[in-house]
Design a protein that fits this description.
Strand content: 15-25%
Radius of gyration: 28 Å
Number of strands: 6
Strand order of the largest sheet: 3-2-1-4-5-6
Helix content: 40-55%
């Protein structure tokens, strides 16, 4: 990419640069507002996570779907087969009625797990539930924990928020760069080409906070996992993006002698 100067562009270019700056700034504000949406349910999700992690087995009395204890529901497998759930393949088990909720819903197990080999129609199955959530399935001494439990949701929401925040920051960086180019156009000074943010960089910006949320949720719980998600993201995404900006500028910035060479050529 060649270096452009104010003399190489038409008089409309400063106006276009200012328009880009305003557009990027507005996009950054929209992204910032959207990034706040996933963060709103985080306190409630953390409260659910604490209740789930502290839940004890239910007593001998009746316990409804809202009970804050671990229920064990026993039933007989009506069907047990490989099935599609979206694009993924799962081992789907359906219990014979009547069974209380949430065990009356199809149970999606790992298609390559031990239970996918052991459970057959007519077998007795134990389903552990909490509130209205299927937690685990047991059969013949083998237990499998189900995905999507309450202790996995808060940190992923924080990861989504961080992804939106950093995309908004990138939009503000682009707005600043456009405004800087517009000022240089107006004063006739040269400028470095824009720093490109291709799909690979954007994917990295989004993937880092989501990966941090995933691993933090596996190691810590509650607010500790949220704080560590933010900390890990800041330690990786922020320096990596700053390094990418400087790397591009070092490669694409005009040489220091360019203005002097232009003056000499004009004098000749």
């Amino acid at each position: 990419m060649g270096v452009q100067t104010a003399e190489q562009v038409g008089p409309a270019r400063p106006g276009k640069a200012w328009l880009r700056a305003v557009t990027w700034a507005l996009l950054g504000l929209v992204l910032l507002a959207l990034s706040a949406v996933p963060s709103l349910p985080v306190p409630d999700r953390i409260a659910d996570e604490k209740a789930f992690l502290n839940a004890q087995p239910c007593g001998s009395g009746p316990a409804g779907v809202t009970a804050d204890c671990m229920r064990t529901i026993r039933g007989t497998a009506l069907s047990a087969e490989q099935a599609k759930s979206g694009k993924a393949t799962v081992f789907r088990v359906l219990l014979q009625a009547p069974v209380p909720a949430p065990a009356d819903r199809p149970i999606h197990l790992d298609s390559h797990g031990e239970l996918s080999v052991l459970i057959r129609p007519g077998d007795e199955v134990e389903v552990t539930t909490w509130r209205n959530v299927q937690v685990a399935v047991s059969h013949d001494g083998v237990r499998e924990t189900l995905p999507g439990l309450p202790d996995e949701k808060a940190t992923m929401l924080v990861g989504l928020t961080l992804a939106g925040v950093w995309l908004a920051v990138l939009a503000f960086i682009a707005a600043f760069g456009s405004a800087r180019r517009a000022r240089r156009f107006a004063t006739g000074r040269s400028f470095a080409p824009r720093v490109p943010f291709g799909p690979a960089k954007c994917v990295g910006v989004v993937a880092v906070p989501l990966a941090a949320g995933f691993f933090s949720g596996r190691i810590w719980d509650a607010w500790t996992a949220v704080v560590m998600t933010v900390a890990i993201w800041a330690l990786i995404a922020l320096p990596a993006t700053i390094a990418a900006l400087h790397w591009n500028r070092d490669r694409t910035a005009p040489p220091a002698t360019a203005p002097l060479d232009a003056e000499r050529s004009g004098a000749n």
